[in-house]
Specification:
The complex is a heterodimer of chains A (378) and B (253). By secondary structure, chain A is an alpha/beta fold. Chain A is 71% helix and 10% strand. Chain B has a domain of 177 residues: Rossmann fold, CATH 3.40.50. The chains are: A alpha/beta (378), B alpha/beta (253). Bound molecules: adenosine-5'-diphosphate and magnesium ion (MG).
Chain lengths: 378, 253
Amino acid sequence: MQTSIACGRCSAELVKTADHMMTVRLHGDIDASTAAALLHDLVPRISEPHCAHIAVDFSGILRQSDWSTLVGLELKKTAVRIGAVFTATGVSAYYSRFFQEIPITDPHPLPPQHADTALTRFGAAILKLGSDLVLMVRFVGSMCLAVGSLVRTPKNLRIDDTFTAMQRIGVDALPIVGLISFLLGLIMAFMAAVQLRMFGANIYVASLVSLAMTRELGPIMTAIIVAGRSGSAFAAEIGTMKISDEIDALTTMGFEPVEFLVMPKLIAAAIVVPLLVLYADLLGIFGGLVVGVGMLDLTAASYIAQTLKTIEVFDVFWGVGKAGIFAVLITWIGCFRGFQVRGGAAAVGAATTSAVVSGIFLIILADSVFAVILRYWG
Amino acid sequence: MQGVNRRPIIQVANVTIGHEGETLLENLCFEVYEGEIFAVLGGSGCGKSTLLKHLIGLMLPQTGHITIDGIQITGCNEEALRQVQQRIGVLFQSGALFGSMTIADNVALPIRQYTVLPEEAITTLVRMKLHQVNLNGYETYLPSELSGGMKKRAGLARAIALSPKILFFDEPSAGLDPILAAELDHLIVHINATLGTTMVIVTHDLQSIFTVAQRVIVLDRVTKSIIAHGNPLQLRDESTDPFVRGFFHRQPL
Ligand SMILES: Nc1ncnc2c1ncn2[C@@H]1O[C@H](COP(=O)(O)OP(=O)(O)O)[C@@H](O)[C@H]1O
Ligand SMILES: [Mg+2]
């Protein structure tokens, strides 16, 4: 029984003899596309009628190449699968080695994966959290050491880097922080106005906006923006340095990487974020004023007077103080995620995301703690 | 140079190259013949890597024409350029493996892009390519788990994935110790001898050029031109040009 298959410039001739032997004669020129077409036609044909011996003859191939050898190896794989003997004839000296040396079955079968139960995954997550916490605490330790060594030798602070970081964290964030705070004040005043107007208590819009901005929303919103803009940038910068061996280079040159890289950012953030919060407070109050004057028929003077009557110096300091703590937390977690990077570019991306997420989490957590403290001692 | 077919596979005619505004090399004319190992030599910064980017169609020359395997790649359409790029392989200086993929996936990348082979056949083909560069069994490794020489060889496996007619190398020996560099040279000669692949090597490493290259051109930054071409051993021993002699004998001028 004889069939032939033609694909472009190559063809295959299948001869089946009585003793369950299938001979495949390949002819012509096999390249990438004809190899795919040939395999598509050939493999089902030789695997269907059960034969005990598959012999492939390459002597008709014009120029033996990786592609013709690939066809041969795939036919060998099929033969092994159906339990037939495989022989190849007419193979050039260079390629005959391939038929002996290329393993047809997977050389490293993957070990059977243990099914992940919810419990094992929960356990693994807890263990990961535990080891993460240890590393975090250790990083707090190295930051404290770096601060200590800076206090002893202040001239080791990289002044230029500190100013650059101040510009990146603070000056460059002015537009977005300003816009969001202004809108926040505007919206808050607008929402409050609808309610307070019913009681004729229009003037208290000023109290609400100013108190909420200085104590809570100003610091929180600013910190979240800084976490998104700068916390992520710290993680990406340090993570990239980590995978390109720059951190190791620093260490071998005798620098303490934490002192060299983290301290300028920490000092810059601790100075600049509180200032950003003051700026956010002002713009939030201004947003409220726009609504008060535009919608509630208050005069600007009475609005400002009410604002000054409501907020005390303590409120402003409290908000600004919180912002200082948030700045330290954002820098700490951003740099920590950067130092944690291992492997390649994808790990840098993961660290960046993680810096923002854990940064925001820490901000909210710290703010809750401050709220409790204020409740009991305030 | 017996056995080398004299059909030109790369033709560079009156080509001027450079980066925006400045020109690096002017009026280059040379040909690379099918099946030979051809080297582009020159000091650091003379524009070797830039020339390579022009030859593989990543940059357009300021003037002149480049023809690869019968297709003019200067001013041709996307389709034709894609066709040419299927017939060439490039080994970049660092290997340029994708760090998030295993070695097998890195090598399979061009195969999946340009062919319709079934997944099983791709596995076999990847295994053949890794076998050809002596990296059997490293399919499931990540690039970060390989040494420098192994990364280069994995990059070579990816470059030969589609059995290209021409292979381009940018500084193949950079970052390798002499033994590893010699191993890679051996691999280059072996692939050239068994598969007849044309090789274009851009380098400043003279040691490997003498053992590998059949024909070289030497570029010069000052005159922005080709200052010598021919067999490297003959150039070393017979050239009268003081700069060429200095270059081949590693003497400062
Ligand atoms: N992307 C680029 N933009 C502008 N100039 C470049 C760029 N890449 C390289 N150059 C300049 O082109 C010159 C040649 O570079 P290159 O081709 O890499 O040299 P070689 O590989 O011979 O050492 C150098 O002077 C380099 O500064
Ligand atoms: Mg270069």
